[in-house]
Amino acid sequence: MIWQLWWVWAVAGLLLAILEVLLPGYVLMGFGIGAVATGLMMLVGGPFAAWITGSLPLLILFFAVASLIAWLALRRVLGVRTGQVKVWDRDINDN
Fold it and tell me: Which structural domain range is residue 27 located in?
């Protein structure tokens, strides 16, 4: 199956990273990092890589967890900082 190929996940991650440049918001970048992490896990292997790649639900679960961790890390590093909120104390129509 196509989802069992490591390079498919890597290409999907790169495409999501390119889409992030066109539609900024750090959401697609988290999914892109998760897809690249899934592809690297499949390429490098490990003690549970063969077990996960044989099952589509487990592979999607790994992708979802990796994407969530990446999104939380991006949010922590690049997210809204304290003090960035603009507070308006007067209306533009006030004289």
Answer: 10-78
